[in-house]
Design brief:
Helix content is 79%, strand content 0%. The chain contains eight helices and no strands. It has one domain. It is mainly α. Helix 3 runs parallel beside helix 5 and helix 4 crosses helix 6.
């Protein structure tokens, strides 16, 4: 349980489109006006992970090789994201659209590839095999998503109107790149071990 929660936190804390918008909402509008976005994010992840979980169960039963290929693709995607973040010199936040709807944010989160990573590398095997396993994992996921999303909003609200010369976009991108690369390396190592032992 602790390993699952830790892995979920590590993945969900990583900067991405969803977390960028949460941070941005905190900076522009403060926590009080933006806290509901953490609940919208939670609903989107629950939907996304449920859909991926059903697909994953089907692949595991009918195409084990497709399962490993999908895991490899997910790990390679993370390495690619890490590489692109390392090379990025400026913030990708676009200030043209200040406000966005909850529905827009919901669908952006549903399309986030983290759901596939959660299902393929973090969720226990029993999570989609029984109703009890499913309910337990979804409750754990919700208990991690809401605080992490709220933390991004709170972090953004702390930077509202503050000039921080030490916290540059380059430093943020490099730190995120290293964290994502470490996570991807661990996932690919786990996949390689499963292939060798299987």
């Amino acid at each position: 349980m602790l390993a699952t929660v830790s892995a979920l936190m590590l993945l969900l804390l990583a900067p991405g489109p969803t977390n960028t918008l949460l941070f941005r909402a905190g900076v522009l509008f403060g926590y009080r006006a933006s806290w509901t976005l953490a609940l919208v994010e939670c609903l989107a992840y629950l939907l996304q992970v449920s859909v991926w979980g059903v697909a994953w169960l089907y692949l595991a039963a009918h195409s084990p090789w497709a399962l490993k290929t999908t895991q490899l693709a997910a790990g390679c995607y993370l390495l690619y994201v890490s590489f692109k973040l390392w090379q990025r010199k400026h913030s990708a936040i676009d200030s043209i659209r200040d406000r966005f709807s909850g529905l827009y944010f919901f669908w952006l989160t549903v399309m986030n590839p983290k759901g596939l990573l959660i299902v393929s590398f973090i969720a226990p095997i029993s999570a989609f095999a029984s109703l009890q396993g499913y309910a337990g994992f979804m409750a754990t996921l919700a208990m991690v998503v809401v605080p992490v999303g709220s933390a991004w909003i709170v972090l953004g609200s702390r930077f509202e109107g503050v000039q921080k010369t030490w916290l540059t976009p380059l430093k943020i991108n490099r730190a995120a790149s290293v964290a994502i690369c470490c996570f991807a390396t661990l996932m690919l190592g786990r996949l390689a071990q499963a292939v060798i032992q299987g």
